[in-house]
Amino acid sequence: MKEIIEALLKEKKYFEIKKQLNELNTVEISDILNQFKSPELVIMIFRLLKKDKAADVFPYLDSERQEMIIHASTDIETREIFDELYFDDIVDIIEEMPSNVVKKILKNTDKKDRHLINQLLKYPENSAGSIMTTEYVDFQKNMTVSEAIELLRKTGKDKENIYTCYVTSENGKLEGVLSLKELIAKKDSTVIEDIMNKKFVSVHTDDDQEVVADLFKKYDFIVMPVVDHEGRILGIITVDDVMDVVDQEVTEDFHKMAGITSSTDDSYLKTSVFTMARQRIGWLAVLMISDTISGNIIQGYEKVLAKSIILTAFIPMLMSSGGNVGSQSSTVVIRSLALGEISPKDAFKVLKKEFSIGIMVSIVLSVLNFVRLITLEKINPTIAFIVSITLVFTIIISKIVGALLPLGAKILKADPAVMATPLITTISDAVTLIIYFKFATTFLRL
User: Fold this and answer.
1) Residues 8 and 49 grouped into a single domain
2) What's the predicted TM-score (pTM) here?
3) pLDDT at position 150, please?
4) Which family does it belong to (predicted)?
């Protein structure tokens, strides 16, 4: 589609472009615009869209294209775009923009909207308050069904979600929840208080967004109210915002598991080389220094290696096996912790399970390795036995270490992802070498 639009632009067939774009949905149009690099072309195509369509497309554009459009827009055009956006989308956009663009956005919003935007921006980063929207449907509990429906007709078109309505007291305290389906099924004279559901789940403005995502998953919500410490409703969080949170949290965990100190909201190609190097170098430096432990262990057994040089050939395989099985265990445990399937109090159960898995896996791999060394590599049976028995202990210990480190981090209120691949591999390498050389010294009597 991008190629078709480019060809039509060259031929200046703008009416045909408008026709092509009108046949697409907002996400498809944003995908096309995000592919164009030239600000002139992005702005030209965006201006070919109808006003309401343009406002729908704008939140789906990446921050770079949004900035291009805002820079090129007049104050009136900017106001028209942002008048159609929901508050949570406006806040998300503002957080990504440089200060001069933010000033232009705020300049072209009315006083009431500016106050709400600034209020949302003051909530702690990654909190429920920072991702909520203030556009929700609420009724007074003493209203009748007919009054509530009439209010919904007047205000519903400006709300992000009308399918779940909230019932409040005179001072704004959230007292109940009512679905649109329940509302229209009741008689006009029915009082809202009599049909509302008083059992509901809510979150506080300062609750972590990861906690919010867990609640959405647990209760299968599509929307959830956000209240202050006095129980007054301040906004709602919708499932599309939670999907963004899940994506952000997963990315953050992957970075931590890979030993990357911090993440960025920019895509891989847009992140500068300097930024990416800075993110990675911290853990790499720590691991490089910690790996000297393995070097010192090897140096301590130089005499053993000198008398049986063949032992050196199996060090990489043993260290790699330990790191791999440790990473497997840590990945499974970290995922289970994130999903709430296990907690630190289940440490003994986890230990028992990983120990059992370790025994089964190590026996199979060790037997295969012993047979391989004897038959294919023609290695001395004693050496083959030393390597294979080391593999048994290495796998079992690495499994246990890989499982217990994330649980330990959880107990210390640290992020379990930090205790993943890099640290586990370092510990596993040192333990493997000690076991290997102890067995070599014992069985070869060196």
Assistant:
1) yes
2) 0.58
3) 93
4) Belongs to the SLC41A transporter family.
